[in-house]
Structures are given as C-alpha cells and as structure tokens.
C-alpha cells in the first residue's frame, strides 16, 4: 500500500518525470496534488503498470486530483542544459502550472533544485512509496508516450511506437541506418560505437 501523504498538515504535490534515459524526444514531468478524501485505487509506480492501467488511472487522476499539471522540455533544451537539469526545470514548469500552491513537494529521486521558497523532500523510489508521486509518474509517462506515438507516425523507421525513444537495439540500428531526426538528443550516446571512438 502506498502512503497517502508525507505530512497531513500540508498541501503536498508529488512530482516525477518520464523519459530521462531516452535517446529522442522531450523529458516530461508532472506535479499532482491528490484529494485524500477522494482516493484513487490502484495507484502505483507507472513502470509496474501496463499501458491500459496507466491510461485508465490517468483519467481518474485528472478527474479526482485537487490539482495537476504536466510540462516538458524539448530535446534541444535537454542538449542545452543537460538531462538532469532539464528534468528539474520540467518539474518546476509543472509545479508553476498548478492551480493550488503546494506547501510541500515530494520529489521522486535523490536530487532536486529547490522551487522558489517551497520546501521539498527527495524520496528514492518515491513512485513506489507515495500515491501523489505515483500519480505524477503515471501522468508524465502517459503524456510522454502519447507524444512519442505521434512522433512515430512521422518517423516510423525508429519504432518509437514500441520503444518510445528508449535505447533499444532496433532504435540504435535505425539511427545507424538513417541517421538522426530533429527529435534526437545529440549530446547523448546514440550509438554504442561512440563509446570506443578514439579521440
């Protein structure tokens, strides 16, 4: 059972990102303030749910949360700032879009750049421990998957409908054969051979 809250006396927003390890596409982040009086059954780390479960829960989260927001940074912004900073910036954008101002942020992971004067707690594997972070992980994942499915229609050879931009063998083979797209992260190791290039 995931915990409902970290501090019941504060308005908490759970925050998580999706797509940090991808070779292509944006990094998405979500922030969610749940209504503890209107619980959602089945919340869990998005990686432990299948696509059908995630999409069904996304509808419930959007209907029942007190407030939620999703934001992203593009692959060009990831190349400009680096993926870790871009992930935090996407979270900041999402928090900024919340209708309610949170009094405490629950962040999935072990690092974060403070958002304004709002206190935060970093929780390793937080999406497996707190409902609000799990809800954020589901929104970030489903919104990003949706983006990559649309991108796959434009660039079908990269199999993004299947790999969502992650570094699968098929994705790397396509990069090797067809080169990069405007959605690829050029600062990432796109081909395994890059690791052994002599400088």
Write a brief caption for the model.
Helices cover 37% and strands 15% of the residues. The protein contains six helices and five strands.
Which term fits the overall shape? Answer: globular
CATH architecture: 2-Layer Sandwich
Give me the CATH superfamily. Answer: Ribonuclease H-like superfamily/Ribonuclease H
Text of the CATH class = Alpha Beta
Major sheet characteristics: 5 strands, mixed
Overall number of domains? 1
Rg of Cα set: 17 Å
| Strand composition percent | 15-25%
Q: Enumerate the spans where pLDDT stays under 50 for 5 or more consecutive residues.
A: 195-199
How many helices? The count is 6
Helix content: 25-40%
Task: Please report the total strand number as a whole number.
Answer: 5
Side-by-side strand order of the widest sheet: 3-2-1-4-5
Mean pLDDT across residues: 95
**What class, by secondary structure content?**
alpha/beta
End-to-end CA span? 51 Å
> From N to C, what is the helix and strand string?
EEHEHHEEHHH
Q: What fold name goes in the CATH topology slot?
A: Nucleotidyltransferase, domain 5
């Amino acid at each position: 059972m995931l915990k409902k809250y970290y501090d019941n006396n504060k308005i908490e927003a759970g925050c998580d990102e999706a797509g940090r390890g991808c070779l292509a596409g944006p990094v998405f982040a979500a922030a969610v303030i749940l209504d503890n009086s209107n619980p959602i059954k089945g919340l869990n780390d998005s990686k432990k749910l299948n696509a059908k479960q995630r999409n069904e829960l996304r509808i419930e989260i959007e209907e029942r949360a007190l407030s939620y927001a999703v934001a992203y940074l593009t692959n060009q912004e990831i190349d400009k700032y680096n993926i870790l900073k871009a992930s935090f910036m996407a979270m900041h954008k999402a928090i900024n879009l919340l209708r309610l101002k949170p009094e405490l942020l629950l962040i999935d992971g072990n690092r974060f750049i403070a958002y304004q004067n709002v206190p935060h707690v970093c929780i390793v594997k937080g999406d497996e421990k707190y409902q609000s972070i799990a809800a954020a992980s589901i929104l970030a994942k489903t919104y990003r998957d949706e983006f990559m499915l649309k991108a796959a229609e434009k660039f079908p050879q990269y199999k993004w409908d299947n790999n969502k931009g992650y570094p699968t063998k098929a994705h790397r083979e396509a990069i090797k054969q067809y080169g990069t797209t405007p959605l690829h992260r050029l600062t990432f190791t796109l081909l395994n051979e890059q690791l052994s290039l002599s400088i």
